[in-house]
Amino acid sequence: MSVSFKRPVWGDYLLMLAGTGLMALAIQCIYDPAGLVVGGFTGIAIIVKQITSGRIPLWLTNLALNIPVFLIALKIKGKKFVGRTAAATVLLSFWLYILPKWNLTEGDLTIAALYGGAISGAGLGLVLMGKATTGGTDMVASLVQKYLRYYSVVQIMVILDGLIVLSGVATFGLKPALYAVAAIFITSKISDALMEGLNYSKAVFIISNRAQAVAAAVMQELSRGVTGIGATGMYSGERKNMLYCVVSKKQIVELKDIVIRIDREAFVIVTDAREVLGEGFLEY
């Protein structure tokens, strides 16, 4: 009998609340004071605030730009598509409204790119884990892609965000824009790491003429399960078992020692396993 460990809906909204708070912190207290335009509607909001000498706040521009996009998306793609993303967008604008306007980097663009990217990436990762996005250019890209089928959503989004970053060059200069690109890169890496899991494991494929002995040694000495997969050598036509197992990073050296000890002619392939769920690894 299998047991389901589905996260409750309120858990998703707590993730969205925390994630949008971190994103707003990076935007309000790091990107905006440093003039880093990192794309998206919040990037446009930073430009608008600069042009209007601060008369139009970030939260207002972000909300004003998203409202028509959501109305169009609601008509074209329906409530299910819009739902949580609308909630996350409202939460982001809410955080931008209530957070005080601190300057956490004091004009240091390197710190702004590093810490802004890290905090924003952590926030975005939490929002994505809550099964939502914060609207903006990703929502626009999904709507545009409906009519431009030859382009993917990611390609359209890169173009849109690129245009916004270039607009930042005209407003703040080239140097902040270059640091903004670095911040975007850090954000993507941090959010991906949070989504995929930081505790990487190793997935191993072993092709050996002594597969039974290798499997028995791995199960006994490392206490890890091993799966035999039927395989055929296309050159020799020989049928044999290919072993597959997942071990922790600390155990990979021991596993290779076991294989070499038993069969020095074995063929071993080691790959990264970003996230492993189940007995002996991550459990819910």
Q: What does the largest sheet look like?
A: 4 strands, antiparallel
Say how many strands there are.
4
What series of H and E elements makes up the topology? HHHHHHHHEHEEHE
Estimate the helix proportion, in percent: 55-70%
The number of distinct structural domains comes to 2
Average pLDDT, rounded to a whole number, is 86
Tell me the overall shape: elongated
What distance lies between the first and last C-alpha atoms, to the nearest angstrom? 16 Å
* Spatial strand order of the main sheet: 2-3-1-4
Could you list the spans in which at least 5 consecutive residues all have pLDDT below 50? Answer: 1-5
What fraction of residues sit in β-strands?
Answer: 5-15%
Helix-strand category: alpha+beta
- Radius of gyration (Å): 24 Å
Task: Count up the helices.
Answer: 10
Give an overview of the whole structure:
- With 284 residues, the chain is an alpha+beta fold.
- The protein folds into 2 domains: 9-196, no CATH class; 201-273, Alpha-Beta Plaits, CATH 3.30.70.120.
- 61% of the residues lie in helices and 11% in strands.
- It is built from 10 helices and 4 strands.
- The protein has helices spanning 9-34, 40-51, 58-77, 79-98, 109-129, 137-145, 153-172, 174-196, 211-221, 252-262; strands at residues 201-207, 227-232, 239-248, 267-273.
- The protein has a 4-stranded antiparallel β-sheet with strand order 2-3-1-4, with helices on one face.
- A hairpin with a 6-residue loop joins β2 and β3 (239-248).
- It is elongated and about 75 Å long.
- The two termini are 16 Å apart.
- The model is unreliable at 1-5 (pLDDT under 50).
